From TrEMBL:
Gene3D superfamilies: Heat shock protein DnaJ, cysteine-rich domain, Urease metallochaperone UreE, N-terminal domain
Listed GO biological process terms: mitochondrion organization; negative regulation of apoptotic process; protein folding
Organism: Oryzias melastigma
Domain of life: Eukaryota
Pfam families referenced in this protein's UniProt entry, alphabetically: DnaJ_C
Keyword Chaperone: yes
GO cellular component, as recorded: mitochondrion
All residue ranges annotated as the Chaperone DnaJ C-terminal domain in the record: 1-181
Protein's recorded name: DnaJ-like protein subfamily A member 3, mitochondrial
Keywords of the record: Chaperone, Metal-binding, Repeat, Zinc, Zinc-finger
GO molecular function terms listed in the Swiss-Prot or TrEMBL record: protein kinase binding; unfolded protein binding; zinc ion binding
Length: 182
């Protein structure tokens, strides 16, 4: 299942269509047309080692099973990672779903932590001030201290991705990049 970075980070309910083996409605899983009788095999004397039908049911092709297309709502948990596989019940069967998470143009992921870059001007780096950055859940207002250096990291606790196997959230690290005028 394809997910955007944001869908994987926040969680989402997403529909997929799957083919499921189900009991044939026409033959009730027996494999032959209703009203027909099973012939006892002369090779095994009806012990059940071999069966033949006068009229195998057409949709099930004598197997008693048919493929049915079902649309299923998948609750994607917040914090799933690329190539993570989950098991989900569908009726009396189970399916395995592997998530494919697209790369984000803004964020980089490291477990439950996310990283992004913030461009500041030379004047802003020298004098300090405020800046806005895109967060995972909201736009962030940041205070830029005077004299900040390029590649300085600002840590925002609890602003990362929800931890799948525990409580709480990861952190959002903002890497300051100073724009040098040309």
């Amino acid at each position: 299942m394809e997910l955007t970075f944001t869908q994987a980070a926040k969680g989402v309910n997403k529909e997929i269509s799957v083919n499921i083996d189900t009991t044939c409605q026409r033959c009730d899983g027996k494999g032959h047309e209703p009203g027909t009788k099973v012939q006892h095999c002369h090779n095994c004397n009806g012990s059940g080692m071999a069966q033949s039908f006068l009229l195998p049911v057409t949709p099930a092709a004598g197997t008693g099973q048919t493929k049915q297309r079902k649309t299923v709502m998948v609750p994607v948990p917040a914090g799933v990672e690329d190539n993570q596989t989950v098991r989900m019940p569908v009726g009396k069967k189970e399916i395995f779903i592997t998530f494919r998470v697209q790369k984000s143009p803004i964020f980089r992921r490291d477990g439950a932590d996310i990283h992004s870059d913030l461009q500041v001007s030379v004047a802003q780096a020298i004098l300090g001030g405020t800046a806005r950055a895109q967060g995972l859940y909201e736009t962030l207002n940041l205070s830029i201290p005077a004299g900040i250096q390029s590649d300085h990291r600002i840590r925002l606790s609890g602003k990362g991705i929800a931890r799948v196997s525990g409580y709480g959230f990861g952190d959002h690290y903002i890497h300051v990049k100073i724009k040098i005028p040309k």
